Amino acid sequence: MRVFVTGASGHIGSALVPELLAAGHKVVGLARSDQSAAALAAAGADVYRGELDDPDGLAEAAAAADGVIHLAFKHEAVRADAVASDLRAVGTFADVLAGTGKPLVGTSGTLMLAGLGRTGTEADVLGAGPRIDAENAAIALADRGVRSSVVRLPPTVHSSLDHHGFVPALIAIARGKGVAGYVGDGSNRWPAGHTLDAARLYRLALEAAPAGSRLHAVGDEGVPFGEIAAVIGRHLNLPAVSIAPEQASAHFGFLGSLVSLDNPTSSARTQELLDWKPTHPGLIEDLGQGHYFGGPAQAGRS
User: Fold this and answer.
1) CA of 82: how far to CAs of 12, 88, 89, in Å?
2) Is the dihedral of CA 220, 76, 11, 253 positive or negative?
């Protein structure tokens, strides 16, 4: 299958490209910079130079493909702009793929399910909101002749390939503040998943997910945030300290609104639907391997 991948040189993309190639697929990766293009070429992928905000370019690349995996999100942009860009990209792919039966795999997050008061599942659907609109738009394409699915990523997708995610951010904050912080008693839970397990799930979704599937790339259903802080503290030789809720924004910066969220999330239906089983280390074990703190990397292949 010829697969067009946005975000192909990013964190998950860097694991997904070799995963697809090893399975016999041909990969065409979107690259907006020379550095990204060189990385994709070195990995064995073809390069399509373009931007996420270029609908004509996205349409051309998608039309020439047998399937699309949409990973890219403009994390460096103002959030409202990034959310709008993501929704436009899904709309562009919709116009190209409608009626073809080709697969489109989109990307969303489990944090949208925080606050349910219970463990979130793939059956949980929200009506509207940032990134929720793009997820719902992608799923709705099942009614337009597209084999669409969406992978919901947990807030911590971890491995030695993770250089800019929430885990490195928490470590940087701990170093800067001199304490590994958690909010309140630290009992709120974050789900987690290994990068290589997530990459395998994207491939399986491309190959076999039924139209309209919501999928969870979750290995750890819910890791107490206080436990995450304790491991970070041990590795940095810093105390793990409770931060008052009203001080969370000042202490954690851009993560201030997220660190106290309780987001336990199940992947049971995903595992059954696609025979996908997380096989790589969980978050606490992965943190213990040292690569986040300058120790040896342990990512390996899936």
Assistant:
1) 18, 10, 11
2) negative
Contact of 145 with 99, CB cutoff 8 Å: yes
Query: Which residue stretches of 66-194 are H helix?
Result: 79-97, 132-140, 166-177
- Asked if residue 49 lies in contact with residue 31, where contact means CB atoms within 8 angstroms, the answer is yes
What's the whole-number mean pLDDT along residues 137-153? 98
Identify the band that residue 300 occupies on the pLDDT scale cut at 50, 70 and 90. Answer: very low
Strands 189-194 and 220-224: antiparallel
Contacts of 82 (CB under 8 A, 6+ apart): 73, 74, 75
- Nearest one of 231, 216, 217 to 284, comparing CA atoms: 231
CA 20 centroid distance within chain? 17
Dump pLDDT digits (tens) for 58-75: 999 999 999 999 999 988
Compute φ and ψ for 52, nearest 5 degrees.
-65, -25
DSSP at 120: B
Is the whole-model pTM more than 0.90?
Answer: yes
Percent of the chain with pLDDT over 70: 97
Could you please report the per-residue DSSP string of 236-301?
HT--EEEE-GGGHHHHHGGGTTTTT----B--HHHHHHHT----S--HHHHHHTSGGGTS------
Rounding to the nearest 10 degrees, give the CA dihedral for residues 289, 295, 296, 298: 40
Residue 155 to residue 261: CA distance in whole angstroms: 11
pLDDT in tens, 199-213: 999 999 999 999 999
Do the beta carbons of residue 17 and residue 40 sit within 8 Å?
yes
